[in-house]
Amino acid sequence: MENITNTEKSQILIDALPYIQKYSDKIVVVKYGGNAMTNKELKDAVMTDIVLLSLVGVKVVLVHGGGPEINDMLKRLNIESKFINGLRYTDEAAIDVVKMVLAGKVNKELVQLLAQHKGSAVGLCGIDGAMLTAEKKTTDDGQDLGFVGEITKVNPKPILDALNNGNIPVIATVATDAEGNTYNVNADTAAARIAAELGAERLILMTDIAGLLRDKDDVSTLIPKVNVSEVPYLKMQGIVSGGMIPKIDCCVEAVRRGVESAVIIDGRVPHSILIEILSNEGIGTQFV
């Protein structure tokens, strides 16, 4: 920024104004994960973006996972990670670690980081105020995954209370059922359901890829905008495949449930959230 003149700085702000007006007092749900969660510079950029948006009147809700931290703690405690069809099997010992790491460690570190960037944040998890209710999830062929849950209900009150008090809600994705069992739920899915329940203007999924590419090995083939009705065709063509399928299904579900638009952005790009929200070009792939 040192090389930018004052005139150029003022022009940047003027260009951002229509977007600030568009999103002022609107809810934006950010699912935070991938490289942006482990790289210090990227982490700082994300926190700066969220605090800035919050200060200009955007109601940001931060939903996070913490896979690498969970794996690390399981390893340190000598608890073996078991996977069934690529999905983590979560036994009783592992769900205690998930709860401890997500709601205790990762969540509070993010609240602290936002505070260091002069933001006011409140750490929540899906158990608080019965925010996320879940039931046991099984694989497509009916295999048991232990304490892995499928969200059945979202109670937005704890989130809205935090927003209405001027705080940034930071949400760890553990849920509970009527019997008091705790479940690990997928953070992308949770973010999509939360965004829908809040009637969010936008859902942003941060990933380690540029977005949806026509050719997965060529970044220049990025598809900037997709209508949700095109997704089955893109799957048939093999453009939507592998690990992208669940992420894109989350975007489709969010839009079908009333979120204005959902976007997959590259969290490896510094300030990708601001680029997405406050510019005409945006970044990544938008689902409408």
Q: What does this entry look like structurally?
A:
- It is a single chain.
- The chain is of the alpha/beta class.
- The chain has nine helices and 14 strands.
- An eight-stranded mixed β-sheet has the order 5-8-2-1-11-13-14-12, sandwiched between helices. The chain has a two-stranded antiparallel sheet with strand order 3-4. The chain has a two-stranded antiparallel ribbon with strand order 6-7.
- The longest helix is centred in the middle third of the chain and has 25 residues, at 92-116.
- The mean pLDDT is 87.
Keywords summarizing the entry:
40% helix; 288 residues; globular; 8-stranded mixed beta sheet; alpha/beta; 9 helices
Summarize the model shown.
This protein has about 290 residues and is of the alpha/beta class.
Strand order of the largest sheet: 5-8-2-1-11-13-14-12
Low-confidence stretches: none
Cα shape = globular
Q: From the helix content, strand content and strand pairing, which structural class follows?
A: alpha/beta
The rounded Rg comes to 19 Å
Can you count the beta strands? 14
Quickly count the helices.
Answer: 9
Distance between the termini: 34 Å
Average predicted local confidence, pLDDT: 87
Helix-strand pattern: HEHEHEEHEEEHEEEHEEHHEHE
User: What is the beta-strand fraction?
Assistant: 15-25%
Largest sheet: 8 strands, mixed
- Helix fraction, binned, reads 25-40%
